[in-house]
Amino acid sequence: MIPSKAQLDSAYSIVKPYVHRTPVLSSSLLNELTGSNLFFKCENFQKMGAFKMRGAVHAISKLNDNEKARGVVTHSSGNFAQALSLAAKSLNTKAYIVMPVNAPEVKKRAVKQYGGIITESEATIQAREAAAEEIIQETGATFIHPSNDTNVILGQGTAAIELLEEQPLLDCIMVPVGGGGLIAGTALAARYYGKNCKVIGGEPMLADDAYRSLKSGKIELNDTANTIADGLRTYLGDKNFPIIKSLVSEIIRVEEEEIRTAMRLIMERMKIIVETSSAVPFAALLKEQSNFAGKNVGIIISGGNVDLSELTF
Amino acid sequence: MIPSKAQLDSAYSIVKPYVHRTPVLSSSLLNELTGSNLFFKCENFQKMGAFKMRGAVHAISKLNDNEKARGVVTHSSGNFAQALSLAAKSLNTKAYIVMPVNAPEVKKRAVKQYGGIITESEATIQAREAAAEEIIQETGATFIHPSNDTNVILGQGTAAIELLEEQPLLDCIMVPVGGGGLIAGTALAARYYGKNCKVIGGEPMLADDAYRSLKSGKIELNDTANTIADGLRTYLGDKNFPIIKSLVSEIIRVEEEEIRTAMRLIMERMKIIVETSSAVPFAALLKEQSNFAGKNVGIIISGGNVDLSELTF
Q1: DSSP labels for chain B?
Q2: Right CATH for B53-143 from 3.40.50.1100, 3.30.70.1140, 3.40.50.720, 3.20.20.70
Q3: Taking every annotated instance into account, which residue ranges of this chain make up the domain Tryptophan synthase beta chain-like PALP (chains A, B) (predicted)?
Q4: Quick one: which of A229, A224, A175 has its CA closest to A197?
Q5: In whole angstroms, what separates CA B155 from the centre of its chain?
């Protein structure tokens, strides 16, 4: 059930030519502040602005020629919509994107800019799934889930491979937990490329489904998910949960105010623009700072797609 | 009158251990948009958030032991105040900083945080010079000018050395022009380390003293300087002007709206936080885009010290 090292190696060689090798940044100020040695893997500098490009490229690459000719479909209003659109363009196929009618104009524009073909649906999950199903019936396109897909998970793991190539002796890697694709991929990379490197998730208290899932041993949902970390409102799936269950050490939950503080610190001290979701693992580290003292900690900055006009501090 | 390659080499080896080697970032989107190959040297990631650390370290390092024991003094409300404070701390001496009473609290806090000793004065240049003079009389500290000092100029040139080490075939390097220290240092680096690498300045139309100085052949002042690029309101001096006159190809002037557009583009597309002054050379490139088509262009992102609460787009 756990993908092999060979599968991850293969994903890395497939994904590499289509993505940026993003820089790993450090900040002496944040090191002083936390007492840890922090290494930020800046996927906010990735193509289309987030790590999701990696999984999308890998999933499309694994299709056969017939499937590629018919295209891919997903429903997402976030980064995966852009990722699948740009990956499809890079790999000469089509991406059909189901977006809720109320999705922000700026997100629709980004998808169109990358060549994605948008179908609007009502905002409910049922309506979105029905719209995707209709496209599949009409076009024969292959559905690709944003996070609960083994090839997507393997692709997302390549960010941590690059991080570990630069910093082989990390004690742990911290990532945000949303749908579970990034943390599952990172856990595989840490297992196969790290040296006793733990993987720790950061999750908003207001959408702590993964924390509860690890406790109960089965996939839990969120009743509400009003967190400002809008990329983390989703829940785990049957492909990534087994990986998370067996390879992730811990999930640390943080309050909204802690996310805001972490985001401001990253932007002020590191001079980089990050999404709210990206601030969650750093918020988790700040919360349990003493546990990380003296440790070498990798943090994956998952993305940087923020609407600048909505930034308020 | 033009410092030698040996002097610049020496500055580089002196400065190196005290500064970050900042990354050089590219953006495929901005390359597509402009038709040039752009290489952004990210001095916004430098210690204290700006290239000014380089010149401050070099100037202090060149003092003899007696001078070092007595400390250094400058008047600045901007990045050089922080740079001199942090450089003095790194080199075990004291920095006396004259700041206008109306300087923003956040800037005073930053200077104090780096160990600078603040003296407040009235905001006029006369009052600031008088306050600095008084400190010199009392303490025997050495005055260090933020931009019109040969050792400062040589220190600032080290950013372009690093850029040219990574991208030896740049056709030109673009920098903002304020007091003239960065552009003079960059011009020396391009001359000694580049291969026919031009240096081009970007300057706000509202503070275009350097543009007019190059035209008239003598140092011109600004009547008013209300540009949003607040780091560029100053004028050239007798140490940097001869270097600029003999080694800088051109200065391109830009409107306030062009600076704002360039700043937003950099932040949205590159996901980095830059000061308004740092957006000026990119604004200059956008303005005369066709002249740079197909060229390899280095752009020095001079700093990232912005008050996030003042960011409005």
Answers
A1: -PPPHHHHHHHHHHHGGGS----EE--HHHHHHHSSEEEEEEGGGSGGGBTHHHHHHHHHHTS-HHHHHH-EEEE-SSHHHHHHHHHHHHTT--EEEEEETTS-HHHHHHHHHTT-EEEEE-SSHHHHHHHHHHHHHHH-PEE--SSS-HHHHHHHTHHHHHHHHH-TT-SEEEEE-SSSHHHHHHHHHHHHHSSS-EEEEEEEGGG-HHHHHHHHSS----S----S-GGG-S---TTTHHHHHHH--EEEEE-HHHHHHHHHHHHHHH-B---HHHHHHHHHHHHTGGGGTT-EEEEEE-B----GGG---
A2: 3.40.50.1100
A3: 16-303
A4: A175
A5: 10
Here the ipTM equals 0.91
Domain with CATH 3.40.50.1100 in chain A: 5-49+150-310, 53-143
Tell me how close the Cα of B47 comes to any Cα of chain A, in angstroms: 8
Contact A267 B28 (CB under 8 A): no
Give the gap in angstroms from C-alpha B129 to the nearest C-alpha of chain A.
31
Element (H, E) at A213: helix A209-216
Domain A5-49+150-310 falls under CATH 3.40.50.720: no
- Of the residues A41, A52, A108, A239, which is catalytic? A52
Chain A residues whose C-beta is within 8 A of a chain B C-beta are 23, 25, 28, 42, 44-45, 47, 49, 264, 267-268, 270-274, 304, 308-309, 311, 313
Centre a 10 Å sphere on the Cβ of residue A198 and count the other Cβ atoms it contains: 18
Contact B304 A274 (CB under 8 A): no
pLDDT at B313: 64
- Cα B244 from chain centre: 14
Indicate if A52 belongs to the active site.
yes
Residues of CATH 3.40.50.1100 domain(s) within chain B? Answer: 5-50+150-307, 53-143
Q: Which residue of B has its CA nearest to A263?
A: B308
pLDDT tens per residue, chain B (313 residues)? Answer: 899 999 999 999 999 999 999 999 999 899 999 999 999 999 999 999 999 999 999 999 999 999 999 999 999 878 999 999 999 999 999 999 999 898 888 889 999 999 999 999 998 889 999 999 999 999 999 999 999 999 999 999 999 999 999 999 999 999 999 999 999 999 999 999 999 999 999 999 999 999 999 999 999 999 888 899 989 999 999 999 999 999 999 999 999 999 999 999 999 999 999 999 999 999 999 999 999 999 999 999 999 998 888 776 6
Active site residue B309: no
| Active-site position among B36, B41, B47, B52 | B52
Task: Tell me the CATH architecture of domain B5-50+150-307.
Answer: 3-Layer(aba) Sandwich (3.40)
Interface test with A, best of B21, B114, B271 (most A CBs within 10 A): B271
